[in-house]
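Reading a protein record of the kind used here takes only a little practice. To see the layout at work, look at the sequence and tokens printed below.
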Amino acid sequence: FALAIQGPGPEKAGAFFCLTGTPMPDLIQQQRHPQPAGGHVVVLSLARPDRLNALPDLSDGDEVASICEAINADQQVRCVILTGQGRAFSAGGDLRAMKERRDLFEGSGTAIRERYRRVVHRIVRAFYGLEVPMIAAVNGPAMGLGCDIAGLADIRIASDRASFGVPFLKLGIIPGDGGSWLLPRNIGYARAAEMLFTACSIDAATAMDWGLVNRVVAHDTLMQEAMTTASQIAAQPPQALRMAKSLLRQGRDMTFDQMLELSAAMQALAHLSDDHGEVVSAVLEKRPAKFTGR
């Protein structure tokens, strides 16, 4: 198999190259933007607009894991933007597949459990495990698994057409994707409980008020706004940037003393990096810094 990935070509972003050993993409299209972020920003687009970007199909776990592993291994990547094609970010699970008890939902309870672990959980673990900051540019409805995937992002920017919901109970099921762990951490227990127990969706303005998104922008400017933020992130020294994300993520579950120990260890590495020496010299010499990732 080969994975077709959109990267910078000699004339424009969007030229294709392949990584062997990975399945052909179906869920996600990738594009690497040479400007204004110097090729350090990758845009991932959920690419099933005819199905409102429903997921997962059985191959999606492998695809997402392969993409995220490749991004983590590429030291030139400093930020990821995740968005959806068409009018939805993602409608979540495929209701027809649920109705017909096929694909993810086929077979015994044990079989379904194993597919959740090997497909759904692989998707959310892969996105959550990205070592570089991820921005969710939420272009439309983000429901169920789609809402929880958006919640995995470090920064969430919503179109004024976006909406958010976790309507699992309406379908007689529960969040099988880890959303019951994630959502309270993003918006607090009480608001997460209201969203889950009522199964009601919220609009973009409410999502911002509740802290689910950083800001709401006009629909037509969504990707421009996301790219502006991504470019600001990509301007930071890459190794320190990855360490900073790791500290924030691990800090969710650490004691203060544990965080101090980890911070001291990472800070020692940062002080010895070439990029730290370069940025100190650049500040003193009043010039832009040039980072090498070393």
Q: What stands out?
A: The CA atoms of residues 75 and 293 lie 7 Å apart. The first strand starts at residue 2 and ends at 8.
